[in-house]
User: Which sequence fits this backbone?
């Protein structure tokens, strides 16, 4: 490659990423000669250790997956240091490793003291974050053995008082205030989903409201059939009664518990019929709750999808005095110490729902609404109440086909409560993880991998023979707009911002799991409100969370998402040379790109096609190539039958794997290996044997990242993929008789993708 000497500061673009560098020399990709020299020096030095490590390859050509993923429970010290072998007994290995690391940050040592806080930094802010996380975790793992009904009841009452619902459940009597006043005091969350949504046209977050979407709520279809014979309805009523039982006198609660045990053996029809005849305290409240939820479900289903924006005062006039829109919203904004003015803009999704809701509030009995509001607030922390309530919640969620919750709160389950999209303390735990376990200097290395993989992907788009020119131009534009999101965004590294993210969480004098659940979720809601009417920049948003353990493509943000939690062994070993990490990390990047390309093109799902939809001719030509690729070859002679016998075995075992997966895998491995070979040639590493060994290591480390000893399908998927890749057979010198050397009938990827091939034909 030719280099030109330049002595000035330049700006270059990789997709939409802008990077400022000072260069003495640049190559065609914009890298400086010094950067390239440093990278190649490390790359080549890493190769010198690979020759003896992967020199032996017995079994590689018979079953490469089993050759790499040794199925055994114990690994010897020699195997621990041998990248040719790996043993994993868990289905989600990255999740397992992530759990171990986070628990090591939160668990108490043998003396009952907190672990060394220096791992989270030396500032008071960082220590506070860790202290808060440790307190929650310790309370969580002890909850199943230390819970007391009276303490849980007091915690729920403390929560409800924050919403002026301290008399819940209201078993008898009537309220002396209007329904409008009840809803104004509690806020509007029980009847609407309130969000801060980034508006790209206005470059700011704006307040939006839509129909209710509570995590543990029944779907409208279940609520509409609440008086019919359905298991989901029965389970939901039992959940409500289980929570209400907390508020009954001990004698009556014991009687109710005995009754509920009898109900567990009843059919759905018998239970509903029996409950309809009851006039006990629980039934009255249950009927109030079910009535309000059923009415909300009806108006939800009748409302048509549409969106309208107007000032809050304008909406208030349209909805009338029975809907406390402004005052109800101000209730929550005041909790966040925020001002909400009548002239502020508000977007309503499904405005017909809110019109019907206003009419409903005009006629509903205040006591019924009061009991529903108290149930809504309490239900939101049901996964943090007693074991019995969590069991009832889990049974209902199972019948309602909704995401499940852990019943037993062990260490792993308590960590899962903290992280993820609905995590109680996602940002704080991420901050601690990044400071302790994640090395930011590795991001440029992975970015370098992405740069070479993207370059090869651009060649695939430019030189394949099945895309029309119009589609090629679209996909080239798509490649230019792609962002690399690797690791975590800057906000997760800034200590003050992370601490401020928990400014509404009080320090509890007495640890209480329900109150931790409540205050964390309340805090996260109020933090979201703080975004309203603040600047919004779509390019600063990352679609994936740093502790996600999978790579993904974001069609909305046009980004490759490789979260920090993915960049751990076996996808990225911080102690290994760069050349050892390219197999799993580079292939992961190529996989995300392949998924993004087909998703944008609308290849598999035309309804969900992205902004760069392929032409019909391109899709037809591509799908024709796919059919040819999937077609089995027929044997016309005894020699061919013997040859195909081993191939048929791999083919049959992989028959259940979706063709979409096979095609994406096909593109992914070829793009990634081609990028790897280009790096090898550019760096001009002198040791020939080491270079060959590195090629073996590419496939070995890639498969190592796919090892799953509990999934036979994973074995069939990997063997199917590699046995059809001629470069794999060349590297491991597989013969025509070997099962791992099969015929490749695919014509999807241009052969020019490979540095040592000049033919324009597709493979």
Assistant:
């Amino acid at each position: 490659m030719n280099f030109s000497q330049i002595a000035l500061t330049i700006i270059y673009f990789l997709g939409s990423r802008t990077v400022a560098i000072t260069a003495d020399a640049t190559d065609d990709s914009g890298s400086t000669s010094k950067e390239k020299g440093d990278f190649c020096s490390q790359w080549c030095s890493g190769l010198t250790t690979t020759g003896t490590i992967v020199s032996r390859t017995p079994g590689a050509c018979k079953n490469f997956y089993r050759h790499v993923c040794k199925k055994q429970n114990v690994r010897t010290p020699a195997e621990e240091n041998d990248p040719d072998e790996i043993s994993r007994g868990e289905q989600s290995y990255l999740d397992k490793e992530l759990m171990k690391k986070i628990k090591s940050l939160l668990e108490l040592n043998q003396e009952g003291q907190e672990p060394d806080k220096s791992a989270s930094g030396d500032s008071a802010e960082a220590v506070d974050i860790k202290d808060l996380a440790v307190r929650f975790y310790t309370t969580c793992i002890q909850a199943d053995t230390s819970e007391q009904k009276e303490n849980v009841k007091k915690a729920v009452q403390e929560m409800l008082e924050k919403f002026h619902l301290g008399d819940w459940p209201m078993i008898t009597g009537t309220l002396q205030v209007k329904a409008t006043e009840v809803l104004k005091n509690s806020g509007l969350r029980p009847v609407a989903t309130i969000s801060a949504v980034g508006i790209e046209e206005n470059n700011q977050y704006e307040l939006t409201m839509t129909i209710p979407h509570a995590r543990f709520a029944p779907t409208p279809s279940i609520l509409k059939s609440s008086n019919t014979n359905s298991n989901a309805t029965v389970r939901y009523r039992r959940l409500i009664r289980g929570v209400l039982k907390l508020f009954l006198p001990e004698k009556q609660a014991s009687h109710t518990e005995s009754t509920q045990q009898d109900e567990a053996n009843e059919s759905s029809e018998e239970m509903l019929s029996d409950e309809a005849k009851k006039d006990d305290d629980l039934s009255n409240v249950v009927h109030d709750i079910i009535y309000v939820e059923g009415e909300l479900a009806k108006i939800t289903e009748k409302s048509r999808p549409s969106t309208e924006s107007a000032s809050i005062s304008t909406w208030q006039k349209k909805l009338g005095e029975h809907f406390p829109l402004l005052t109800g919203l101000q209730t929550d904004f005041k909790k966040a110490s925020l001002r909400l003015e009548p002239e502020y803009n508000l977007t309503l999704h499904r405005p017909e729902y809110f019109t019907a809701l206003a009419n409903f509030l005009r006629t509903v009995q205040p006591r019924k609404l009061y009991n529903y509001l108290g149930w809504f607030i309490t239900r939101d922390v049901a996964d943090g109440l007693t074991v019995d309530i969590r069991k009832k919640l889990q049974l209902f969620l199972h019948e309602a086909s909704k995401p499940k919750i852990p019943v037993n709160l062990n260490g792993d389950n308590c960590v899962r409560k903290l992280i993820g999209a609905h995590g109680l303390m996602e940002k704080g735990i991420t901050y601690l993880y990044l400071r302790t376990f994640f090395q930011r200097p590795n991001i440029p290395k992975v970015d370098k991998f992405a740069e070479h993989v993207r370059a090869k992907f651009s060649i695939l788009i430019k030189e394949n023979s099945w895309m029309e020119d119009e589609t090629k131009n679209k996909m080239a534009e798509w490649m230019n707009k792609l962002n690399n999101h690797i690791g975590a965004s800057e906000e997760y590294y800034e200590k003050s911002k992370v601490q401020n993210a928990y400014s509404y969480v009080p320090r509890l004098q007495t640890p209480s799991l329900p109150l931790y659940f409540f205050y964390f979720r309340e805090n996260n809601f109020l933090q979201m409100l703080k975004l309203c009417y603040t600047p919004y920049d779509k390019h600063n948003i990352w679609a994936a969370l740093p502790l996600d353990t999978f790579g993904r493509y974001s069609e909305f943000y046009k980004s490759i998402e490789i979260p920090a939690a993915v960049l751990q062994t076996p996808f990225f070993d911080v102690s290994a040379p760069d050349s050892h990490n390219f197999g799993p990390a580079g292939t992961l990047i190529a996989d995300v790109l392949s998924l993004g390309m087909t998703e944008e093109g609308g290849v598999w799902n035309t309804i969900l096609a992205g902004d760069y939809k392929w032409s019909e001719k391109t899709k037809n030509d591509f799908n024709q190539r796919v059919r040819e690729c999937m077609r089995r070859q027929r044997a016309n002679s005894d020699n061919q039958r013997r040859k195909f016998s081993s191939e048929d075995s791999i083919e049959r075992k992989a028959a259940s794997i979706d063709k979409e997966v096979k095609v994406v895998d096909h593109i992914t491995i070829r793009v990634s290996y081609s990028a790897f070979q280009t790096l090898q040639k550019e760096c001009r590493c002198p040791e020939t044997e080491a270079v060959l060994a590195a090629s073996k290591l590419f496939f070995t480390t890639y498969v190592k990242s796919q090892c799953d000893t509990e999934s036979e399908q994973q074995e069939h998927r990997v063997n199917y993929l590699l046995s059809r890749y001629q470069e794999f057979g060349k590297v491991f010198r597989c013969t025509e008789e070997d099962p791992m050397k099969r015929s490749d009938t695919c014509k999807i990827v241009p052969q020019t993708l490979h540095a040592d091939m000049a033919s324009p034909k597709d493979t």
Remarks:
- The chain is about 50% helix and 10% strand.
- The first strand starts at residue 4 and ends at 14.
- Strands lie at 4-14, 17-26, 193-199, 204-210, 307-311, 345-349, 483-487, 552-554, 559-563.
